[in-house]
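Hi support team,

I've been running sequence recovery on a batch of backbones for a student project. Most finish fine, but this one hangs at about 90% for roughly twenty minutes before it completes. I'm not sure whether the input is malformed or the queue is just slow. I've pasted the structure tokens below so you can try to reproduce it. Let me know if you need the job ID as well.

Thanks,
M.K.
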């Protein structure tokens, strides 16, 4: 399994990175996990625009889903002919959310592009990926996926405040991709995001073999401080997610 970061900026794009989007691949199957601002641009730097086999949206905040609007046009109007119907797994209301964002509010043509599949917390088989989910602690319904294929495990927190179920999500994972939007300290709102220390603590408790910190809000944060927070509590392999970089997951 491998995972390429198509965008890792939190909340709004940075000068050199779009928002949450990750291309997870195994055995030639390409799963786009989240599709925040800039995902469709970045996707074209890593293969054919249409070469995506399924999409999985953790939640419907714009920084995780909005480029599905752009992607609907890219697939629907592709001059090579109609692209195959693309399965899109997302929380309840995904079709309506994307339709509203197109401005037309109509879903009929989107139904010719996307095959909407609603997440309800139950496990799903998505191509070669056995996917299971944890409901996170976030202002909107957010499903954090654990993806297993070929003996490798990738866990992704989506967006979340403190959430005990993250330990099960990341149990013995080869890679935990964890949001770390906040810096540790007083005044962070409850139930929205993690800080670097919290991400590191969950990774340590879960026995995750490596930890990538993502969803940092570059313009407001301090990446070095976020990394140091996690490093103080987690002694596995640790780094900040890098835009455009591909990471091997498992052996
Ligand atoms: Zn977000
Ligand atoms: Zn969010």
């Amino acid at each position: 399994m491998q995972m390429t970061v198509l965008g890792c900026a939190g909340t709004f794009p940075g000068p050199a990175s779009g928002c949450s989007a990750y291309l997870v691949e195994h055995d030639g199957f390409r799963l786009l996990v989240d599709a925040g601002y800039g995902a469709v641009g970045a996707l074209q730097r890593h293969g054919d625009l249409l070469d995506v086999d399924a999409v999985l949206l953790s939640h419907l905040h714009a920084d995780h889903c909005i480029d599905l609007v752009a992607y609907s046009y890219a697939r629907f109007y592709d001059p090579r002919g109609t692209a195959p119907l693309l399965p899109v797994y997302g929380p309840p209301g995904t079709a309506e959310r994307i339709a509203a964002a197109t401005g037309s509010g109509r879903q009929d043509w989107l139904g010719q592009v996307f095959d909407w599949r609603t997440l309800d917390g139950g496990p799903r088989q998505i191509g070669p990926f056995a996917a299971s989910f944890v409901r996170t602690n976030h202002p909107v319904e957010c499903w954090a996926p654990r993806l297993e294929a070929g003996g490798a495990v990738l866990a992704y927190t989506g967006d979340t405040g403190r959430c005990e179920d993250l330990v099960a999500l990341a149990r013995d994972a080869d890679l935990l991709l964890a949001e770390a939007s906040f810096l540790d300290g007083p005044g962070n709102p409850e139930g929205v995001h993690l800080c670097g220390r919290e991400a590191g603590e969950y990774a340590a408790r879960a026995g995750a073999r490596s930890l990538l910190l993502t969803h940092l809000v570059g313009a407001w944060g301090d990446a070095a401080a976020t990394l140091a927070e996690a490093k103080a509590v987690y002694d596995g392999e640790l780094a900040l997610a890098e835009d455009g970089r591909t990471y091997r997951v498992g052996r």
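--
Follow-up from support: It reproduced on our side and the slowdown came from queue contention, not your input. The pocket of zinc ion (ligand 2) is lined by residues 59, 61, 138, 159 (CB under 6 Å). No action needed from you.
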